[in-house]
Amino acid sequence: MSSSNPISTASSLPFRVVDRWGKKVTGIIDYTIQVLLMVYLSVRAAFIDQAQGMRDIVRVVSMQIYFTGYQAMPLITVLALATGSVVIMQSSAQLSFLGGSDMLGKLMLIIIVREVGPLLTALVVIARSGTAVASELGNMQVNKEVTALESMGINPLSYIVFPRLAGGVISVICLAFYFSVIALIGGFFVSRLAHDMSFAHYTFTLASSFEMNDVVMFLLKNTFSGVIIFTVCCYQGLLVQKSPHEVPQATTKAVVNSIIYVIGFNLIVTTLFYLKNLMDLGVV
Amino acid sequence: MKLFVSPQVIDTMSMKNLDIGFGDRVVINNMCCDLPTGKVVHVKGRRGVGKSAFLRVLAGIEVPTQGEYYINSKNTLAMSFEEFLEYRILIGYSFDYGGLIHNMTIKDNLILPLRYHNAVEGWLIEERVEYYLRLFDLWDVRDERPSFVSGSMRKEACVARAFIMEPEMVILDCPTVGMHKHNIQVLIDLVKEKQISGNLKHVFVASDDDEFISSFATASIDLDDHLDQSIVIEQEAA
After folding, report:
1. Does domain B13-235 have CATH number 3.40.980.10?
2. Which of A14, A61, B27, B107 is least enclosed by beta carbons within 10 angstroms?
């Protein structure tokens, strides 16, 4: 009897696999909608709150910029110098074999400004500040601090989420710019012994290869990386209910989700960008 | 200086078919009552009956599973955060534990609502905060963060913060637990003084401290009877 039951048939293996994947996909869509909704609500709350406590919001934004941006500069410097010098050394050696050393500037801009810079900066920010934000908010939930803000008539979305989001986005853009400058210029001097290119020629190739598309892609990737990191981390932190044991779980989930979303977003932007380039060239 | 929101006067409060629960566990079931106003109301009931949850709903910081909560005949549960702000700003709330912002000093915790809502002039903020800090004997630890002071000081700071906006209604969840005996008397005197001056109209207290309650409570709500779908409201002579 059970084999003729349509419900039982539906629970056979292929359907169960489809069910499982369906649940996963709807789960991801639901999560993304929740996160985007939080961005909207926090920005809305901050604008409604404009007259009230703007000084407090500005204070938290500046603190966030200090912790996320300024304090991450030494680590970013080391990473940028290492990345820049390695890419210059490898590229200049390979390009000189092919007789295309004039292409170095273009290659550096594509690798550093468009791809590696935004991604490495985002990873550093996730590791340093994303974890801090998620665990801070988780602990605030456990200590009833978020409820306390509500009881005082302070909207946690405008007081906690928005300043972290705004400060985080500004910090990510500034850090990625700093990363790119250090990698492009500092990397050249660090790898000076490994190539014989003059600095004037190098800067000329950089300047002549610079396009508006580099700026667009740089701003697009870094702005949205900042939004993704700080919204996901705030969201996960605020999901903590009452127990301290939820805080490390929320932090881990915040890091994993941020990395997945940032990498996914960067991949999509790069793919779309190069598809557009190919379409402009008439290849696709 | 002027508050950015226009506070309303709380005249009546009532609950209709209110359920409060955590997950599948319902702690308050189908509560229908008009809440006593203008009194010091003792919210009583055995442990786990939902006294704290009830007080949080009263303060608008917890959403019940279902039902309606009216202030001045307006359903507050249908209001947005901004709409309820007109009432919330009139309510001071003291938590049973926690509730202080840990990355701020004790003094800044008291300053926060005043400054955020632009409640009073800068010099008046300092004056008012100093008054409450000295009243609860917290002046010496004003620049310490909550984690660096004793539990009783944290409790006293939380209670002091509930009064800092000069609210019309104060909700105190187990205020005497961990509080120094001297400061319990200070709290009783403060409530009486504020009531006489007319600033404080409604007080809701959940506490098992009989001596404390008997010294100033004028009405009570018994949550033990919630499963019978009735709330016994004992109105005593004010």
Report:
1. no
2. A14
